[in-house]
Amino acid sequence: MKEPTFRTAPAPGAFEPANFRPVNFASDNVTGVAPEIMEAIAEANAPQGAWPYGNDDVTGGLSGRFSELFDTEARVYPVATGTAANALCLSLIAQPFNTVYCLKHGHTYEDEGGAPEFYTNGAKLVPVPAADGKMTAAALEAAIVDVGGGGARLPHVMEAAAVSIAQVNECGTVYSVDEIRDICAVARANGLFVHLDGARFANAVAALGCEPAELTWRAGIDLMSFGATKNGAMAAEAVVLFNDDLEDTLSQRRMRGGHLFSKMRFLSAQLARYIQDGLWLQLAANANAMAERLSAGLAEIDDVTIDYPVDANMIFATIPGDTAERLRDSGFEFYDWGDPDRPNIRLVCAFNTDADDVDRFVEAARR
Amino acid sequence: MKEPTFRTAPAPGAFEPANFRPVNFASDNVTGVAPEIMEAIAEANAPQGAWPYGNDDVTGGLSGRFSELFDTEARVYPVATGTAANALCLSLIAQPFNTVYCLKHGHTYEDEGGAPEFYTNGAKLVPVPAADGKMTAAALEAAIVDVGGGGARLPHVMEAAAVSIAQVNECGTVYSVDEIRDICAVARANGLFVHLDGARFANAVAALGCEPAELTWRAGIDLMSFGATKNGAMAAEAVVLFNDDLEDTLSQRRMRGGHLFSKMRFLSAQLARYIQDGLWLQLAANANAMAERLSAGLAEIDDVTIDYPVDANMIFATIPGDTAERLRDSGFEFYDWGDPDRPNIRLVCAFNTDADDVDRFVEAARR
Amino acid sequence: MKEPTFRTAPAPGAFEPANFRPVNFASDNVTGVAPEIMEAIAEANAPQGAWPYGNDDVTGGLSGRFSELFDTEARVYPVATGTAANALCLSLIAQPFNTVYCLKHGHTYEDEGGAPEFYTNGAKLVPVPAADGKMTAAALEAAIVDVGGGGARLPHVMEAAAVSIAQVNECGTVYSVDEIRDICAVARANGLFVHLDGARFANAVAALGCEPAELTWRAGIDLMSFGATKNGAMAAEAVVLFNDDLEDTLSQRRMRGGHLFSKMRFLSAQLARYIQDGLWLQLAANANAMAERLSAGLAEIDDVTIDYPVDANMIFATIPGDTAERLRDSGFEFYDWGDPDRPNIRLVCAFNTDADDVDRFVEAARR
Amino acid sequence: MKEPTFRTAPAPGAFEPANFRPVNFASDNVTGVAPEIMEAIAEANAPQGAWPYGNDDVTGGLSGRFSELFDTEARVYPVATGTAANALCLSLIAQPFNTVYCLKHGHTYEDEGGAPEFYTNGAKLVPVPAADGKMTAAALEAAIVDVGGGGARLPHVMEAAAVSIAQVNECGTVYSVDEIRDICAVARANGLFVHLDGARFANAVAALGCEPAELTWRAGIDLMSFGATKNGAMAAEAVVLFNDDLEDTLSQRRMRGGHLFSKMRFLSAQLARYIQDGLWLQLAANANAMAERLSAGLAEIDDVTIDYPVDANMIFATIPGDTAERLRDSGFEFYDWGDPDRPNIRLVCAFNTDADDVDRFVEAARR
Questions:
Q1: B147 and chain C in contact, CB less than 8 A
Q2: If we measure between CA atoms, which residue out of A44, A58, A42, A270 comes closest to residue B41?
Q3: CA nearest C251: which of C243, C259, C270, B29?
Q4: Which fold would CATH assign to domain B22-32+280-366?
Q5: What is the CATH number of domain C17-31+280-366?
Q6: β-strand partners of D332
Q7: Which of A361, B293, C228, D328 has the fewest CB atoms below 10 angstroms from its CB?
Q8: What is the domain partition of chain B in residue ranges?
Q9: Would the CB atoms of A155 and C97 count as touching at under 8 Å?
Q10: How high is the ipTM of this complex?
């Protein structure tokens, strides 16, 4: 199986207006803001203003709203990027001399530009072998044993403190409730906290049709990055703490990282609207459905291979030599992924992906 | 002279809806978003999306727009908070074993929650005595001499690398072009870079009526935090690099800090609109005019002292014992500032402050 | 009162053999190793070797020996430099977003080259005004109140977590048991840990003639840097933890800083011998007696002022314009200290300072 | 091939005097100090003292001595531990947002307790697959290509800045001059600095019989940790900089790490004597010869496998089930290494290993 990397991601400045293609499957973050969320932002712009730094009503009510959503008392801290959410989460559960288990092609390990190391002041991310983009409880246990399970240790070896997994993961597959529960059980038995990178959590919940609680704290997740940006928000993610044993320093750490917004209510309003009336799941449902339609169409084409199960809104496909170029000439965009000799692409559907565009893409690929 | 601190700033959660007062002079960040900027944000929400992480047209054009504004080639990096802008700037000009001269009551020293130390990986901020909230070239020179001017040194003493000043500064006064030029001359003579914290830069330029270039790179400023949030943006600041000698690592540092936005165009659109057609100066002009009106009104009241020259949009005033309480009961908000025994308050006017509200405040204070 | 700085400390490489003077009062660290300690090092060099990284008998017995010395259960970690000891201590009691109260001319603040910031990952040292080189309980309390005593706070202001004082302090004066107790009481009442920089702790104990316990944990000290290098060891200091509430991460932090010695027994042997049979106090007693003799002699000379009480082994003196040059020409060395216009020197006596040399110095100064 | 780890290294406190065995092959750091070096230390203890912090004659002459040894102008900085030397070296060649290529079972990656991450402020070590404990130029090139060879990149992916290899490496094999030259050529072609962890450099030079220059700067090494502790010193390693392009901040970084010794001459004297009159190579020659004798003896025993080529002074061997226990009962010590199901041990010979002890061990293993 090929290993996806960001090696051919677009270079800053490489996109002249002339090159821009009308339909872009490169990522769900090429999208704009869902109308409902845009309205919520406009509403937050009340003439009388509001106290800054989160001392406003919308932010004040956020922990309550999330606690209701997750059916447990949760502490909630809005930030604007997934990198900030992930790195802040890790800083709560790993000391500078600790390690955190993750996946080699996990976002946390490969694509955060050193933010986890920065926010933890030097903790080390240790990759565990993956299967279909997933960490397994068995692989985690093997990794733990390999380092020093049961044996005496010198302080030369950094001690493990945490596990971090992504849901939806970076290969587009979704952990079942049982898979997460098993990972968390191994973690707990070894004294490790578990962090969930939920940049696409909505897509996972929509795919599984389960309760948010089941996929998180009831399964043993201690804290999570709850993403909204990729699924219709402008720039809003929530750090959600489920475990009361986690130290109470997130607000200082967020400030120190420069992530405390003075006009916080504009972040909070996005998050509040996002989880209201099931909007987040409706948006994710469209993304997932479009990915299913797209992969179904591609799977029927000779010489096209779908590389991972399409559990949510991401498709990794191997397409013949010149197809990628041809598709781009027809006005479609997407990321190359993996080995240059064995063409491999990533296609991501979003909350606003249109069925006609999907069909046009399949049509173009078929030719 | 009293020393302002944030000691009585509002506690998170302290503001029940019931307590909220319709007119809030606590800070210019209690405001919302100016209509023109809200429109620009809506426009950026084009249906076809855009490449993420700054590879969009609006962001692509930003350096050009700022270069025009400053009449020089400038490198521009949008971020969402002033803390991020300041800390990232300092990380470019101070190694972990360097010191940065600043003011004791400067925002960088006192109110960034450790962000400068975090982003520089441990550099030390060293306060220089202030006069009316300003650093003087003479005080800077004296501080430099005090550490080791001319003498040999062991590596025990951290070496100075930079100076950081705020314009408008934290006492509401504005550095003249000459004052900045003198500070920069001392800095340059001692091999120090100079950073300008321009969270309220618009108010300073509006007050002085000079060209942005005169107040910055022409005077010797190497890099600045160009603020927009306090003056009508939602959450947008620009790191602006004037000096070509500055290392080219801002994009890695921004990513590592979690400050690279995927939907960057929503930040860039705010900044682009903010500096277009002089909007930023119009907004600041209102804030400054209202502060002048407010301070003029207050100055006529017996027992009220205006503590610093009101050069821009901030007023520090000493008012009699029970006046603060009475004003709050009448529906006005502001921050206490300084010594409990000698009542001292801060009032900040904003881009949308209303003359009637100002007059009502003065009226209420007079009673 | 003049403020001592290291501004005229010797430049690396400035000391050619030709310039070297036989009697050097510059510091107690210009000395070598006391014969008893040299013997202990040689004894530790047993032919059969020993387990590395502190798993040897000498290191194993060290906590017991120190616990006896301090009349309480103490955790002891040998390191080789005072900077390492101080910085590691602070890393246990201050988070990166905390502040530590100290003195402006304290070693921790001014002369550790950024090590405290490094090991705490960015905590901020905040100076408290001093009197005769000492922090007072009242000054500490005033500093605490000034930041935000009793009031609500935004995370903008770093929260205080600790106090660090030196005994003997950097002006050569010694805190009484009561003075330390008072400082610790204020600290405790405000939830702050107290660290003692005991680079010259032996000199303080010898001067006061009290029990080590009285000056430390009984007075409220939580942890200390117990110095031996300046008083006859080759390179050995002990981090001593008195407070059981301190987190148990010193061995990881020491390893991470590169301060875990493989042949640890050579450090431990120095410390074990140092505190055996009262050697440490005998060595310090000579240093103190010589300083008394030296200051008494100097005090009788016209135009010579002794700037601080000579409580232990350090003398700060103001001498007439050309005296320093003349003394150096006669073969004496010492550090200049403070203002060039008002000659001020520091003289330090050591465990092996000779009475004849002291008398010769006084004689030479008198001429 | 089994992967060595420290998993069964001795626990602190596990070694009661009663258990101590007279012959310890666990590591070369179980040894004491060679007599010649002990003498040099005693000589450095001159009665007149010396200027501290490296301003003494011995330290002053060190760069000259090393420059002669390496036949090039070298900058030399003594420190006391290999961890400090390695971490300081990496801090010169990798920014916090950079990666450093190393081996998974390299000391730098696995056994420094987070020191590299600490001193680089968060750089990431990225393992390259090894062959017989060695990095190959081809494997390095493949790793570089895998990350982003030729392609555009987002700042999400940390940029590579350096390579770090150990000589002797952690499997006891020695890189040839050509192998090092090839690695350095790939590094140079990709803009990477190369660091050599020379904790056992003497053993490598003694084994190859080549000039130190050939194995280092002439082959393309930019800087190295030159070890002495494992080969007869008490605690002394030298950071040696060959490349003039390396920034000149080592003395500040060393101070900040707490590794500037006040009585520096005791470190420098060890290093000076170590490289004088070929002492370092004589000491290493004995260690290598004893390892050859030991491995030759063991290789003749049925059921014993020597796992890696014994190029220098380390032997990795697989021995039958109960042999390890039996050898320990006979008074021999060594580290278990690797998988509990497939007994694997490490034996290290040292500068003072005795041929009789080696023969006794072989005899005991044979029974």
A1: yes
A2: A42
A3: C259
A4: Aspartate Aminotransferase, domain 1 (3.90.1150)
A5: 3.90.1150.10
A6: D23
A7: D328
A8: 22-32+280-366, 35-278
A9: no
A10: 0.93
